[in-house]
């Protein structure tokens, strides 16, 4: 029986359904990102949800026409005009992580097509670079209001940069995403709705334009947050202490929802105004609650203010099994971020009783589970091993990716290293194939060569100091089969004579260890690797020098880079070369000959260093949509749908126009 036939038997699918779900050519030609301004006739009158009409009648809200901007964003519903009302239900793994329903909360300056080839105006009406890409002017949509009715203006962007991101008391080491040529972006307010950014070098990869996962939110409500900053409130420090915080900085970042750089990454500050479709109204240890934003700036083609749905509830699931049980029992309106392909046969069989349908989308990740070793380890012996590329090559050769693909991904993933998605115009197959073949003999020979030839009575290799070689592989058990893959990798590495323990961690605890460079090895995923985000995020992404998120293997290198050498640890020449290659790439215009050459230099270097080791990537991903949900996917559309942080999961499906069928 073939691999495909086995999959068909498990899932109960016909051959035609299988071919449709797994079809879709992968493009290889470059398409320049384009700002698209749809030409819609503005509705002549506006309608609102009954729950808001009641508040207007009671004098609690102004009429809908006064709450909307003069030129609201007009959304064409995916299938039909929706109806108002109801509550969507979702689930998340923990209060500190994003979840399926929060994905729809992001209101960025721009929105993107699923393949990221098109940019659409949102909070901003447009942008314009100068001829040499050293300046970019962004024009905001006039008349947009925060959820408390206060105007959204350039002042909210200036506050975000000058009083937060550029304030050394809050962020001693600024983010590389806000730099070009080693210097912070300059900004100039031209008027309430126009701002100009300046760059020390040509910067066509400007993060605010290209960041798609999630769409860039370089603003905060200045009228609310100024009360927590001593620049505007001399008593901010004393008030922070009285409120139970150890500093004004801690209170400010807490109130600003700083985790993940987004408003919408885990439990939110319910007091802070938002621009999103829904407002967070309560947060506790069990759930998050939301209700519609009366000032949301979008309408459908008939003038109905969005969103259609009144309320959202997100409950926490203690583990992946509970998450999947909630989904197949029909409790969740949509589910996908923590649904695993290994459960696909069960999910398909449960569609009728659970009253939902399943759709397969496709991971944009270069590797759905990848691994990285701490490159600045405090143990000198482990540091010597982990920084030797031969050790990393051996560990890669020692992973049986075919077994991982069969057992965890039902044979439908792609065995590959952590590298750019194969749809990229400059993709080279050799990057994905580098040291991915399972070859334990070659792995053992490399380990012997670097001084690990001696073993104890249990067969465990001995370090140069005579101590058995043992370390931990730490991971977050979220967003995919991290647990299952890590357990298999540990088995493979133990067969090489290395004692490894897989350890699932809580996010904040593991981030603290990574920031302090206390980890041995970690596992997460390598995402944002479709072409546009690989270009825009690359320097600060998982494949950039030092890594990112849970595969941040060189945080102190990044501190050194971002502080001009005043902080952190000086990186090796390979890391400096990789950073220089990314910087050079981001100074080239998307799609140009120079761009293509620079991109290949970047991925040649990431391939050679092997700081991030891939397993299986670009796998199909089941998502669940309950049958009472309308306008989620286009009826009858079998186009390949990319899924991941690159295009922010559900976000390109415009969740504000989803509705609950009667």
UniProtKB/TrEMBL annotation:
Coiled-coil spans in chain:
none
Give this protein's Gene Ontology molecular function annotations: peptide transmembrane transporter activity
Annotated compartments: Periplasm
Taking the first listed entry, what is the main subcellular location of this protein, grouped into a coarse class? periplasm
Q: Residue ranges of the Solute-binding protein family domain?
A: 118-522
Query: Which biological processes are named by the entry's GO terms?
Result: peptide transport
Recorded family membership: Belongs to the bacterial solute-binding protein 5 family.
Q: What is this protein called?
A: Solute-binding protein family 5 domain-containing protein
Q: What taxonomic lineage is listed for the species of origin? A: Bacteria, Pseudomonadati, Pseudomonadota, Alphaproteobacteria, Hyphomicrobiales
